[in-house]
Amino acid sequence: MAEQLSFILADGIYQTPENQKVTKDVLQAKLVAPINPRNRKDKPTTAWGIEKINRYGTPICISGHKMELRGSDREKGQYIYTCPVFHPNAKQEGLTCPLANHAECCNGAAQGRVFRMDFDQTPQVDVELPQHGRTFEVLYSARTIIERIFGILKDGYSLRRVHKRGKQAVEAHVDRCMISMHIMANMAYHQTGKANCGWTRNRLQRAN
Question: Quick one: 141 and 122 in the same domain?
């Protein structure tokens, strides 16, 4: 099984150096899990234009905005953050920056502040796959698909309530739920030509 795995998606509670090592050594895969701040607190910084580093390892500017991670400098061991108001590739709709703060933070630079932060300042962030980056977001978004599937199984196929006794009867009930789900997924695929999670009992009724 390990040869088929590239990434293991998990909850933030599993994001520890020990679990990262086990996942890599045993499964030859990368553990993908969000930041678990645990008992960490926001910490102040003397960096120009930056108010603090929050407990999730994100720099917050003096206007109260989260800086946007744009990449890493491996040679220098630094993350590179940019302005979410002025940088053309990081702009977030609705965010503004007072003129005085813009001048104080980056002397009114057209693309706003660029902030470099050493890796060791935020040990809660995964250096290999920073949780604030786009690559992590894309990979971890697959977890919500898995959760929706379990939600459909529980609420749409009676997996939440098992009115059975004995191990065999319970396993048979789960098997029927799983088989029904796969039948629905197969029917949805043949109806739409797409593999997605848009299969429900209502769609099955319409198909019949």
Answer: no
- The b-or-e profile of 85-106 (16+ CB within 10 A means b, else e) is bbbeebbeeeeebeeebbeebb
Q: Give the total number of structural domains in the chain.
A: 3
- Residue 197 exposure: Cα atoms within 13 Å on the Cβ side: 13
Are the beta carbons of 66 and 43 closer than 8 angstroms? no
State the Cα–Cα distance between residues 194 and 45, nearest whole angstrom.
Answer: 49
Q: Which domain holds residue 19?
A: 2-32
Please write the tens of the pLDDT for every residue from 173-205.
888 888 888 887 787 777 777 655 554 555 444
Q: What is the pTM of this model?
A: 0.71
User: Is 112 inside any structural domain?
Assistant: yes
Chain center to CA of 117 = 21
What tokens were used for 19? 């679990």
Residue corresponding to tokens 């001048």 = 103
Instruction: Identify whether residues 55 and 104 lie together within a single domain.
Output: yes
Are 144 and 116 found together in one domain? Answer: no
